[in-house]
Amino acid sequence: MIPQSRRRSVALLAIVVGVLSALAVAMAPTAHADGAIIKGSISDPEDAPIAGVVFTVSNADGFNETTESDAEGAWVVEVPERGTYTIDIDTGTLPEGVTLTDPEKTSLTVTLLSGKKTVVFPTGEGSTGGESTVDRLLQLTVDGLVFGLVIALAGIGLSMIFGTTGLTNFSHGELVTFGAISTLIMNNFFELPFVLAAAAAMLLSALFGAFQDKILWLPLRKKGISLIAMLVVSIGLGIFLRYVYLFFLGGSTQQFREYSGQAGIAIGPVDITPKIIVATVIAIAAITAVLLWLGYSRIGKASRAISDNPALASASGINVERVINVVWAVGAGMAGLSGVLYAMNIGVTWLMGFQILLLVFASVILGGLGTAAGALVGALIVGVLIQVSTLIIPTELKNVGALFIMIVILLFRPQGLLGRSERVG
Amino acid sequence: MDFNLIISQAITQGIGVQAVIFALAAIGLNVHFGYTGLLNFGQAGFLAVGAYGLGVTVTTLGLSFWLGLVVGLGAAVVFALLLGIPTLRLRADYLAIVTIAAAEIIRLTARSVTLRDVFGGSDGINRFANEFYALNPFDSGLALGPINFSRNDLFVVVVGWILVAVACLIVFLSMRAPWGRVLKGIREDEDAVRSLGKNVYSYKLQALVLGGVLGCLGGFVFAVSSQSVQPDNYGTDLTFFAWAALILGGAARVFGPVLGSIIFWFLLVLFDVALSEAVRSGLITFIDGTQVGQIRFWILGLSLMLLMIFRPQGILGDKRELAFDVK
Amino acid sequence: MSSSATTASSARAALQSVPQEPGAAKPDPILVADSVTRTFGGLTAVDVAHFEVQRGAITALIGPNGAGKTTLFNLLTGFDKPDTGEWTFEGRNLAGTSAYKVARIGMVRTFQLTKALSKMSVLDNMRLGAPQQRGESFWTSLLPFTWASQEKEITAKARDLLRHFKLADKEDDFAGSLSGGQRKLLEMARALMVDPDLVMLDEPMAGVNPALKQSLLNHIRELRDDGTTVLFVEHDMDMVRDISDWVVVMGQGRIIAEGPPEQVMMSQAVIDAYLGEHHDTSLDTGEGQ
């Protein structure tokens, strides 16, 4: 994963950019309807979208239209005017085993005052028979650990980059998305087998990271620009990258050609798909490899020396800039892998990295900013906490819980669980 | 290509509602970052709190618009205190993370299904500004050369700029007074200021409250102008636009955020409309209409980067005074 | 204003009867500290059993690097929290008081690494120091007539002090453009704007060119003559011998010797503390300060 020359990274990046541009035609974003609309989305208790569910929108004036949910579980109906409408769901079109949270409520009435109205028919959540709290807790814990690994892969890179350069990288999420998008291109467009595609994506991510450092962050460090200014630059970079992704990818979620849908297998009370098991194993392997690398390899040890005391490290003969470049490559590669694994779960979207960025920050802060092991510990805790918290708080607010925890940690133990007790205020 | 349309749109928007909203948000941010050095990346949260305070009071609780304004202002103060009391001891980059998180918490809570009866969920709240528009003294809109405002828009814009003027006056008076001097000292070195007997913590809180209240005014203008409050309008994008406007115009200068807001918005709309026109008239074929809106964010991202790298003091700022050193 | 010679000798006279041992009680102490300790992860930085500073005298605090002098400063002025300890200033218990309150009560310190606010003008630096400014409250700041006249007074006082410290022609320059020594002078002048009863100077001579040193020494003498107590940390032994009325020696966090400058400098304990090398060179013992 060590870049041999800048030219090769540039060439590879040019290929990627060129491919993405070509895909602009293939992946044209869908236009959204103008005028008044009623829309909604339907998903199963695991938040996976359900296609083919039939909805009927009608009103007292004789307007009557039927539509079906699409692959993302989304449906939309244009209505002629504002007013009161009735939306009926045909529960016969729901898949086996999925029922509405309130089976009586197959019909909803809404009043349309603004240009659109969103209607939701909730499914699952306690109405699918006999799942004990312990079972749910176990399932959520496992889900949480898996999610935690995704966060950990991204967080380790973030922590390493912070440790060696002091940069709080607000565009780190875009490295995650980059990995997912690269895999998408390799898998769907170039039709590489998935494993090869993922591996290539990880390599591309690493090169992207090294490239970023070489042409942006290194010159800024040399220029002596302050860390706050670099923080704002990273925010700008993040915005730019996100909307470049959106531009080429479109707004809707894309799935990998392989491994998109899979039936879960039951291990005791826990439901898990084979792809997730494989992903988990890979994640653990990658994390272990990086932790070992940090602990025992020459460059790994050098990076920790730089984190501790850059002047001393430089004075003792370490080529600081080269080590930082490698750290960027490894960190970005890990983030890319995180994107691949995350996308196996939720598909590829332009915002996926940014959406977990705050959670990555929360986990890195919890574990201790600047330590890779801390990033891992923090990530697992955050992942499990988020999932398990849904037992008590509504699913849509689960991220809020994690963010609260982060703020609380910063109040009482700002160096995190494993961080050094350095001045944080 | 309708060049008249492009220019008139750009100029109208450059002094229109959006520019006002961002000017107020950026003025508040200027108090936080420009004068006190607080890295507040959750300014959108203050606008949201003001807008929702107003909307909820009128729509959900059925009370008067003016009471809604008071509630919104109060909510902004409370939010500032809740945010500041625990976090103002933190280092700059930690504060950045916490403020983004706080604003996101506000947004996620406001758009939640659980609290839909109060905040209106992802659709938000509408139709609460009738009492405001009833006061509209203008009989008709304004069509003056390239500038075009409808009757209602004109009212909002005029009131909005009056608010901006008041905000600038407050900033001008307070910053040239000893109070502002303490903030500038804090911006550079808190311990030095402490050693002179000033309660640094209290001053930082005051700055946070002032900047938050000014931002909240922006939320009012936003809510009233569109007669609606929608949670997704108060996300990180809004905060980032305010930052870009502030830095472009010049941090730690009274008119920096105003100038930056006007120019940034003017240029953005100019580019947007020109590109849309080019697409519409067939001059540019490889992108479509929706993608034009996305390119404006490329500009935002690149502007932030280039400004911070090459001209962090913006147009009006003084390089020697900048608050960009790590504390 | 009494002449320098009279006040120096009266200060010396008052201290004549004080036994020359660590923690000696003073006839009229302005600051009394007891059992002050501070450890950093197992390393004891400060362990002072008893410490008293005589009012109206110039006391020097010397010791090798790492002896704990600046840490003691930080603890006494509220910039750091001790593990144990109590101290009173003018009879008021100050333990646990935050830094800004300590300054308001009358104990003002300067910093080893100058904290002249370089992005503000020299004059603004000075004006910042003035206490009880009406304009420092937000609401009154919006009404200039409430603070304008006080601001004039403050500016006049600032200009007066600047003239005294020979910085008058720099009043509109950014403090960052001053030389290192000038910044030290500015910080001292600024501290005086607070009208402190006890001024604690942390290495006021460090980096100051010899021409300015004499001027600085005179300013410190004048401070004492005006009734202000001075406690300063220094490594420049000539200076210490020149102006101090009393010398306190720290080593490894403890006070190891006290006395008039001539006697203390000769004491074996002190020489040992400095490892017997050049008497005006401090040796780094490798411990944190």
Concise overview:
Chain A is built from 12 helices and 9 strands. Chain A has 425 residues and is α+β, with helices and mostly antiparallel strands. Chain A has 2 domains: 6-25 and 131-412, ABC transporter involved in vitamin B12 uptake, BtuC; 37-119, Immunoglobulins (Immunoglobulin-like, Sandwich), CATH 2.60.40.10.
List keywords for this structure.
B: ABC transporter involved in vitamin B12 uptake, BtuC; two-stranded antiparallel sheet; about 70% helix; C: about 290 residues; alpha/beta; Rossmann fold; globular; disordered C terminus
Structure description:
The complex is a heterotrimer of chains A (425), B (327) and C (289). With 425 residues, chain A is of the alpha+beta class. In chain A, 57% of the residues lie in helices and 10% in strands. Chain A folds into two domains: 6-25 and 131-412, Orthogonal Bundle (ABC transporter involved in vitamin B12 uptake, BtuC), CATH 1.10.3470; 37-119, Immunoglobulin-like, CATH 2.60.40. In chain A, the strands form three sheets. Chain A has a four-stranded antiparallel β-sheet with strand order 3-2-5-6, with no helix packed on it. In chain A, strands 4-1-7 form a three-stranded mixed β-sheet, with no helix packed on it. The two termini of chain A are 36 Å apart. Mean pLDDT of chain A is 81; it is low at 1-5 and 16-34. Chain B has one domain (3-321): ABC transporter involved in vitamin B12 uptake, BtuC (Orthogonal Bundle), CATH 1.10.3470. The longest helix of chain B has 27 residues, at 200-226. Chain C is of the alpha/beta class and 289 residues long. In chain C, helix 6 crosses helix 7. The interface between B and C is large, with 29 and 42 residues.
